[in-house]
């Protein structure tokens, strides 16, 4: 019995140490990510890329864009460039807008951000997401005055379902704001991820309940691709 107690005590100590390490790591990340230049290395990696298509459709945003590995095939024949960097929030896109957008001179910009902004740990609300998106649009407009900008709605997910009311409110604010400008567009990708009961489907997410699997991206493709093809017919080569 004393031996068993020692084993259990040792296991408890290990769990406490691991838990403290994870908590410390999350706390460190939560503070560091507040720096708008936090993703500098990601941007430098983008800038080092060569052999990129001319006048592409630029997809920019957080990990839901970065992990879209089939994006090029899914959007064909439209040429696309993926500029997703995982963990980013809308204000990071604003900070790096010139370096992400200007070198590519894209025909259009597709944005997915706001999901991480409204994680419970940030303390942000829907109004902040709208304001930061407006700042991003203003940045893009200075570089590309006539390029259309498409906002993909913040997705409902299993991991952040408790945050869905605020995320839904952000979607509504952005959707309402875009109606005042013919070059701004709102694409609701939520229906691809919700079941008949109105909650997130189990079969469209990876194990973390946040990021999409192939089924989830196929659902996005069915919504996004026809819209882009209708608006942006492929350029003759």
Written description of the protein model:
The protein has 237 residues and is α/β, with parallel strands linked by helices. The protein has two domains: 1-32; 38-231, Rossmann fold (3-Layer(aba) Sandwich), CATH 3.40.50. 47% of the residues lie in helices and 10% in strands. Strands 2-1-3-4-5 form a five-stranded parallel beta sheet, sandwiched between helices. Mean pLDDT is 90; it is low at 8-28.
Q: Briefly, what is this?
A:
With about 240 residues, this protein is of the alpha/beta class. The protein has helices at about 1-30, 40-50, 65, 70-75, 90-100, 125-145, 165-180, 215-230; strands at about 55-60, 80-85, 110, 150, 185. It is globular and about 45 Å long.
List keywords for this structure.
single chain; 2 domains; Rossmann fold; 5-stranded parallel beta sheet; 237 residues; 47% helix; alpha/beta
Distance between the termini: 79 Å
User: How many domains?
Assistant: 2
Give the neighbour order of strands across the main sheet.
2-1-3-4-5
Summarize the helix and strand pattern as letters.
Answer: HHEHHEHEHEHEH
Multimerization state: single chain
From the spread of the alpha carbons, the general shape counts as globular
Q: What does the radius of gyration come to?
A: 20 Å
Strands, helices and their partners?
Blueprint: H1 2-32, H2 40-48, E1 57-61, H3 63-66, H4 71-75, E2 80-84, H5 90-101, E3 108-112, H6 126-143, E4 149-152, H7 164-178, E5 184-187, H8 214-231
Parallel strand pairs: 1-2, 1-3, 3-4, 4-5
